[in-house]
C-alpha cells in the first residue's frame, strides 16, 4: 500500500515548507517578519469589503461552473480598462490563478509533452506540470541581467519535438522582471514558428514601476488563438484568500475543454466572485497608491541589500518580489538558521530559499526570494535583521 | 494546434450540460423547476451567515494550505459528534469535496491504475479519474434492488491486477442508497484481502431516513490506514458555493502527498472556512429539520412517480437524490424535449438524464436523476408537469 509516484515526487512548496520553523520561532516568543510569501498587508478596496458584509443571500449557492455572469462581465470591463479586449464568453472563472494554470496544463498538453519555463520560475508551475504529466524544460535566466530573457536563438535551441508550449509570467514572480515589448514579440514570433501554445500569467499586471508598460501576448493578433491568459484577483484586490481567478482564451476548443474541467469541480467560490463583481469600479487611485507603496518598498529592500557586503540584486521592474544573491553557500540552511538561532531585538526574518524556484539542480543555492509585502518600517527592520544575521552567521563562504 | 486528448475525452457534466436549453426556456418566458442539480433552497444556519456579515478582516488573506486551524478544529469536534474520531492533524481542508476527491486520486493511484465504482455513480468521478490518468471499473447495481451492492464475489471477480481502489459514495449520489453495515463490512474485508484503497465520499452523512444509520469505512479499525474520507460542508450547511471540503486520512503518507498538492494551489477559500468554523455549534435541531424536510420531499417525488404509468423507483434511504426509470427509450431526448417544447401552466421541469451516471455504454438510457431540492409545492407542481409531459411526449416506447 504505497502512495502514488506523483505523491512522492511532488515538491513541498519552498515558500511554505519552512513554516514549521517559523511557527517554532513564534512559539518561543520571537517576532517573525514574513517576507517569504506574497500575502500583502494592504486593505482590500472598501467597495469590495462592503459587499461581503452585505451579502444578501440566505444561503451560499453554487455559481455557474464558468463563473457568475456579473463577475465575468465586470472582469471584461476591467480588461478593457487595461487595454485587453476580452468578451465575457472568452473567460472561465477559476479557483484562483492556480486553477486557471491547472486547467491550461490539462487542456493544452498531453502527458509526456514539454513546456518551456524561464528559470527561476514560480515553483508551483513545476507541481502543476507534474500533476498533468507534463515535463518542464527550464531555460536559465541570469540575475546579473535582471533575469531578462536569453537570446531567442537560445530558447529555440532548447525546444525539442516534445515541446508544446512556453509559459511566461509577466511581471515575474519570483524575479519581478517585466519583459519588454521586444521580448514579448520575440516569444510570440517563436511560438508561431514552432507551433507552440503560450501561457501568460499576468496576476501582477498593474504592478509595474518606473514608467514601464505591461506587455501581454494577448494583445498580439498573430498569436490570438494560441495564447491562454492565466489571471487572478488575489493581488490586485488583496483578496488572496477569496480564491478567484480567470482563464482567458480566444480559442473556442480551449475554452470548451476548460469548461468541462470546470464542471467536474462544480463551481468557483461564490462569495469571492460576489464581492469582486465590482472590480471595474475600484477607483484608479486605489491601484495607483498600492503600486506607489510597492515601489517604495522595493527601493527599501534594494537599499538594505546595497548595505550588505556580498549581497546582489538588480532593480526589478514589477510585481512585489525580487531575487537576491547572498554571500552564503546554501541559502536554505541560512534561512533555517535565522528562524532557529538568530534574533535581533527579539525578532527574525523569513524569506524563501532561491533553489526552490529552479528546476536545474544546483542553481539558485545562494539566492533568496523576497516578497516585499510588509510596510516600510517592518521592511527596514527586516533588512537590518538580515544584515545582522549575515554578520553573525557562522558558516562562511569563500570570498 | 490541438487541445489535449483529456480535453477532448472529458465528459460535459450530464447535470449541467443541458443548462443552455433551460436558459432558453427561461428567456422564452417559461418557469423552469430545476431538479437537475444538488443546489438546495434551504437557508444556511444563521450562526454561519452571521459570520460572513461580520467578517472582521480588512482584507482576505490566504489560509494555510491545509486549512484554517479554527475550522479544522471545529470539523474535528463535528466528526466526534457523528461518531468519527478525527484529529485535526488527520485532516486537510480542500476546495469542496471535489478537490478532496482529486487529491485522493492523485495521491493513491498511478496513471494506468484502476478504481472500482458502483454504477450508477456521481458523474464527476469519471472526469476526476480521467484527469488523474486512472481508469474506471464500473460495477453495475440494479435499480430493482435499490442499487444496493451486488454479491461481494461479483465485485471480487471484477477486480484485476490493475485495480488499486474502491470508491464508495454513502449515502449515494445519484441513487440515494445508504449501504448497510454488512455491505460496508464486506467492502472493507475485500479491500484488505485484495490490498485496495477505499475512498469514501460522505458528503451526505446526515441525510439518512426511516431510522437507518450511516455506516462509514472510517469506523472499521482493520482498514484504518487504507481509507480516505472525502467530505464537504456544502450540503450540510447549504453552502455549496463556499467551496469548503475536507480530506481525512489516518495514513501519514497520504496526508503528506495531499498537503503537497494543497500547497501547489496555495489555499482553500478563506471566507467559507471562516464562516464554517462554527460547524460544531450548529444546533442539532437545524439538521433534524433539514433531514425531515428532505424525507418529506423524497416521499412527494415517490408519490408523484407512483401516479405515472411505466415509471419506477424504489424508495432510497438517504441523500436527496433518486434515480427513476421512465417509459421512454432515451431520457436525454425527453429532457431536452421538456425544456424545448413542453409547458404546463407555462412551466417545465429540468432533471438530469440517467446515462451520464453510467460508464457502461447503453446503460441508464431510460433513467433520470432527481435532486429533490425544491420545497413541497414546487415539487408537487414538478411531478404534475412530468406526468403531463410523459402523456404528451410524441415518442412512444414499446410496452
TrEMBL record, chains A, B:
Its cofactor is pyridoxal 5'-phosphate. GO terms for molecular function: pyridoxal phosphate binding; transaminase activity. The keyword Transferase applies. Residues 32-361 form the Aminotransferase class I/classII large domain. Its EC number is 2.6.1.-. Keywords: Aminotransferase, Pyridoxal phosphate, Transferase. Pfam families: Aminotran_1_2 (PF00155). GO terms for biological process: amino acid metabolic process. Gene3D superfamilies: Aspartate Aminotransferase, domain 1 (3.90.1150.10), Type I PLP-dependent aspartate aminotransferase-like (Major domain) (3.40.640.10). Belongs to the class-I pyridoxal-phosphate-dependent aminotransferase family. This is Aminotransferase.
